[in-house]
Amino acid sequence: MAEDQDKETRQPPESPDGGGSEVDAAVESPADAAAPADAASSADVQAEASAAPAEDASQTPEAAAAGEEQAPEAPAGNGAEEQAAPATARRPEPEEELSPKERRRSARSRHAGPAREPRSPQERHAERLIERRAKAARRRVRRQQERAKATKRAPRGELAPVHAPVAGVRKMRQGIVVSDKAEKTITVRIDVARRHPRYEKIVRSSGTLHAHDENNDAHEGDVVRVVESRPLSRTKRWMLVDVLERAR
């Protein structure tokens, strides 16, 4: 008896029209309820897609142009489109370097004023001279300004010379005349005797040089004194000072 009462309480009451109870409608699964809605939405999308080409085909080019003119301008974006644009479109291409002659030619081609009257070569030369004088005057003014700025600077202390000043002292040699055949030139033999730095032996050597004798005073065999001078010829770098001893 208790089981029969439980079954009776569990069974929902039937609706008067016999179409099922409200509880059965509420108990239906959500997946079963969503399936018809999804089917309806997919059918609507397909219908719109099929209708779109028909509308585009029915529209004439004149109507499309009129629609474009009447369409309102889109508001300026916030920079997203500019960021989406490629970097190469934003960067200007570097201009090709032209030679001075090509730059002058391009400047003349852009000239829109009246044509200049032809000039003779003399007139062109005169214009160049005037332009050079004007440039020289501008350079002179600029250099004067630079000098004025340099003088206004604080003077620096005098720097010590790198090399101590040395008075020029010309070399002097004493020797014997071995030849006086040349005009105003004598050949002098210089004898040198020095001690060897290691063996302490007296080493004798000799060499010849050409000296200038203006008055041909010295003759062969004379003992003379010569002094260093400026280059007088290809081989002469000495001058006769005086004759110390005459030849016998």
Describe it.
This protein has a domain at 172-245: OB fold (Dihydrolipoamide Acetyltransferase, E2P), CATH 2.40.50.140. The protein is 42% helix and 19% strand. It has helices spanning 2-10, 22-27, 30-58, 61-70, 80-84, 87-90, 100-109, 121-152, and strands at 172-179, 185-195, 202-212, 223-228, 236-245. It has a five-stranded mixed β-barrel with strand order 1-2-3-5-4. A hairpin with a 6-residue loop joins β2 and β3. The chain is elongated. It starts with a helix and ends with a strand. Residues 15-37 and 51-58 have low confidence and may be disordered.
Topology summary:
Blueprint: H1 2-10, H2 22-27, H3 30-58, H4 61-70, H5 80-84, H6 87-90, H7 100-109, H8 121-152, E1 172-179, E2 185-195, E3 202-212, E4 223-228, E5 236-245
Parallel strand pairs: 3-5
Antiparallel strand pairs: 1-2, 1-4, 2-3, 4-5
The CATH homologous superfamily of the domain at 172-245 is named: Nucleic acid-binding proteins
CATH class of the domain at 172-245: Mainly Beta
Q: Biggest β-sheet: count, sense, barrel?
A: 5 strands, mixed, barrel
Q: Low-confidence runs (pLDDT<50, min 5 residues)?
A: 15-37, 51-58
In percent, how much strand structure appears in the residues?
A: 15-25%
**Category from helices, strands and their pairing:** alpha+beta
Q: How many angstroms does the end-to-end distance come to?
A: 183 Å
Overall shape: it is elongated
